[in-house]
Amino acid sequence: IAGITQAPTSQILAAGRRMTLRCTQDMRHNAMYWYRQDLGLGLRLIHYSNTAGTTGKGEVPDGYSVSRANTDDFPLTLASAVPSQTSVYFCASSDPPSPLHFGNGTRLTVT
Amino acid sequence: GQQLNQSPQSMFIQEGEDVSMNCTSSSIFNTWLWYKQDPGEGPVLLIALYKAGELTSNGRLTAQFGITRKDSFLNISASIPSDVGIYFCAGQSTSGGAQKLVFGQGTRLTINP
Predict the structure, then answer these.
(1) How far is A73 from chain B (nearest CA, A)?
(2) Are the C-beta atoms of residues B21 and B108 closer than 8 Å to each other?
(3) Considering CB atoms only, which of A42, A59, A92 is closest to B104?
(4) Does residue B2 register a pLDDT over 80?
């Protein structure tokens, strides 16, 4: 079934550790996105990519980095995790101007 | 940053009742979207609105793109148990290809059978 795969589904991480959240899509969409979801705040854009080889900053990029080496993969890295990065992270993709499709999320807890 | 004001934050209704929720913004958007999120899953698109004043239906769901392009509402008629979940509005602007969505805070819908 075509769609977006995120891994891991959940993770508990000690503060200061490095972590990469994985996202793969098989729809050949050009654009990909990372959002974080926090209670009462909805979803907020962290980073995005228009196409392979390009990335851009969203609303809350600090503490995160991304890369887009190919069309299908868009990993999100936390270089040194902090407790405020405890959240649910959603990867999405789109073939503009069609709407975004979302993965099922990664629940991250930083202790 | 930009933010959408979505209301109500939560609703507790009886099965069969109609539901209405709305979003307002201080900014103009080119597109308004309504998503639904079930527990443990990502948001799923319900309705997309592309023109100011547009009224669009998807089964029991009806949504409108406000004429000022700063607001939108979603109605659900004759609610059923599977309508339970969190509903999000999103305003979309396109910049250099990627679509950047601004989300409302969500409306949590609970239905009493």
Answers:
(1) 16
(2) no
(3) A42
(4) no
